[in-house]
Every structure is written in structure tokens, then in C-alpha cells.
Amino acid sequence: MNMDREEWIKKYAGKKILVIGAGLSGVGSVHLACEIGAKPILLEQNEQKKESEIRSSLHESDRQRCDIVIGKLSDEQMEQLTLCVPSPVVALDTPFMDDLRNRGVEIISEVEFAFRFAKGKLLAITGTNGKTTTTSLVYAIMKSVCKKVFLVGNIGFFLCGEGDGDR
Which of 36, 92, 106, 110 is deepest in the core (most CB within 10 A)? Predict the structure, then answer.
């Protein structure tokens, strides 16, 4: 879909967005979901985790705006979902993810989720070898000539967690 930031905001405002994983990527995705007016559900599949610890890891403004589920979602919760943003370590070829797809839930990465709401310009570096070096060099160059530059990805921060509205 070729939509601009405001169209994406309208699409997800008030909708239930499932974020899987309570690590840095998940916390950032919850924050972005709250910023755009969505209703995030943070699913932590590790049943050893405590809700209070997860809630305290969220941005302060998001703590009361996010439902937290430890373990499994109910059928009712599954039916309400519009979008799923899994942590990068979540396997996409599981019966649970298949169930989401069969229910028509769109599944996208944290990077794509953040990209839809980006206000600035993005530069992506991909490849097999040399990404970290190239990224570090490009970041240093951009930082010397631009007001706001964020280093995100495997060597920086998660894109959803950067910028606090200035993404």
C-alpha cells in the first residue's frame, strides 16, 4: 500500500495492535502504537515473566494504555486484532502466526511498522558483509551535516523506540 503517514495513522487509530515480545523492539512498538492512537496488546509468551516488570519497562506514558498478556491470547482477543508486530526473534512459521494470518491479521516487522509513520528521510543499508562499518561511516557523515540523525537497527536503537514523535 502506498499511503502517507496520516493515512496510516487513520487506519490504525483506535485499533488493536498485537506486539509480540516485551524486549526493546516490543517496548518501542508499543510506544509507537500508543503515539498513533492505537490500542496495543503486548504479548509476552514467556510465562516466567511478571506483568509488573513488563509494565515498568514501558514508557511511562504507555503503561496504562497497553494491555499485557503473558502466555496466550484468548479467542476474543485474537478476533479484535488488526495488525501484529512480532519481535525480530519470534518465529513466523508457527501455528499461532498461521492462525493470525488466517484471521486476516496483517503481520509486519518493527522496522516496517516504524517506517509507515516516519516523518523524515530514511537510509537503509543491507547486504552480507560490511554493513556495520558502512553504517557507522554513513552515520558519522550524516551527523556532521544534518540536525537530527538517528542510528537504528542492529547496531543502534530500534526504529520504533527512536525519535519520540520525531521519527
Answer: 110
Burial of 65 (0-12, 13-18, 19+ CB in 10 A): middle
Nearest CA to 21 out of 92, 103, 99 is that of 92
Q: pLDDT, tens digit, for every residue of 53-86?
A: 999 999 999 999 999 999 999 999 999 999 999 9
Strands (E), 45-93: 67-70, 81-86
> Which of 41, 48, 14 has the alpha carbon at shortest distance from 26?
41
Compute the Cα dihedral for 91, 95, 100, 101 and give only its sign: positive
pTM of the shown model = 0.85
- 39 HSE (CA, 13 A, CB side): 8
Distance from the Cα of residue 116 to its chain's centroid: 11
Query: Residues 91, 92, 95, CA angle at the centre, nearest 5°?
Result: 95
Q: Quick check: 1 pLDDT over 70? A: no
Edge-to-edge strand list for the sheet holding 67-70: 67-70, 39-44, 16-20, 81-86, 106-107
